[in-house]
Amino acid sequence: MPNSQNLKTIGLKATTPRVRILELFEKSPVRHLSAEDVYRQLMQEGLDVGLATVYRVLTQFEQAGLLQRLHFESGKAVFELNDTHHHDHLVCLQCGHVEEFVDEEIERRQVKIAAERQFTIRAHSLAIYADCRNPACPHRREVGGNTGSG
Amino acid sequence: MPNSQNLKTIGLKATTPRVRILELFEKSPVRHLSAEDVYRQLMQEGLDVGLATVYRVLTQFEQAGLLQRLHFESGKAVFELNDTHHHDHLVCLQCGHVEEFVDEEIERRQVKIAAERQFTIRAHSLAIYADCRNPACPHRREVGGNTGSG
DNA sequence: CTTGTTGCAAATATTTTGCACCCAT
DNA sequence: ATGGGTGCAAAATATTTGCAACAAG
Fold first, then answer.
1. Of the candidates A146, A148, A144, the residue with the CA atom closest to the CA atom of residue A30
2. Which of A47, B2, B29, B49: disulfide with A42, CB 3.0–4.6 Å?
3. Do B62 and B70 form a contact (C-beta atoms < 8 A)?
4. Per-residue pLDDT tens digits for B8-37
5. Order of strands across the sheet that contains B78-81
6. pLDDT of res. A93
7. Any CB–CB contact under 8 A between A73 and chain B?
8. For strand C, is any atom closer than 7 Å to the CB of A12?
9. Angle at Cα B103 formed by Cα B88 and Cα A83, nearest 5°?
């Protein structure tokens, strides 16, 4: 179980909830999960975990850099594995499907915009909200019905 | 009072809370206000309004296109007057100051990215989080202490 | 008048915290 | 064994809703 080692390396005891949550993110076909999603999934797998623990672990993992916390338009945070490079998100408003993308020109221009205003850029979040208007949304149901129009 | 007319035009009765909330956004030196901000401000002006009413009115105004609802990283929504063209946000993590910007190249590339993936773009939100690292943050205190690093 | 609107209180939703017990090291 | 970690329940925060009183047209 390589994850046990990963966890210890970052100074966290390899407890059952932590290992299982990390595994969940690694194995889930759905990349973006809310605390509630994680909680329900673990319960469904027969692990009797507390929602509070899920929140605590997710926050610890975020601080440790294992996960990233994202907000989109839904009012609840979702988390994704921080295993790839920085990227932005394209979110389907119909089915909640999320695709990731990187555009170097957009990245460059953001740095430039901040610099022009003498701001030191720390982070940014860009989400494009759209419809993946295929006759039948190819990715029906994903995480939580994203609503709103922004 | 031109606002009374504006409100009626969009099918809303010109009630005191509505008129005052709209005025507040028009006159406030702070462009981005949360429901709580609006509520406190009105109370301070001596208007005995309910927080629930503030939430209802803000939502109505958003649906009517008078306001825009934004999320940033704080967990609570802020609203801004929808009087200008679309723009993105540069948010100081230290003092919460918000500057707006538009970059046509970024806009174009977003449309292109969505199109390449056969998505119909509906909206997007781009926030750059930064420090306006001036010896004394020039815009101390604005809306609500934005935290996090996202 | 009549219907939409408000204020209040209670309900929801999301996330955090206090605390006694438990388990990884 | 021991200190960090957990589950539960309660608290905190943000927002929504039911309802009787009220006010704009």
1. A144
2. A47
3. no
4. 989 999 999 999 999 999 999 999 999 999
5. B33-34, B78-81, B67-70
6. 82
7. yes
8. no
9. 65
- Between CA B72 and CA A90 the distance in angstroms is 17
**Contact by Cβ (8 Å): B128, B91:** yes
Whether B119 and A101 lie within 8 Å, measured CB to CB:
no
Query: Is B58 an interface residue toward A (CB < 8 Å)?
Result: no
Interface contact B128-A148, CB threshold 8 A? no
Strand C footprint nucleotides (protein C-beta < 7 Å): 4-10, 13-18, 23-25
Which amino acid is it at A143?
A: V
The structure's pTM equals: 0.83
Q: Which residues of B41-69 are buried (b: 16+ CB within 10 A; e: fewer)?
A: bbeeeeeebeeebbeebbebbbeeebbbb
User: Å from B9 (CA) to C16 (C1')?
Assistant: 44
Over the stretch A83-133, which tens digit does the pLDDT of each residue have?
888 999 999 887 778 899 999 999 999 999 999 999 999 889 999 999 886
pLDDT at residue A143 tops 90: no
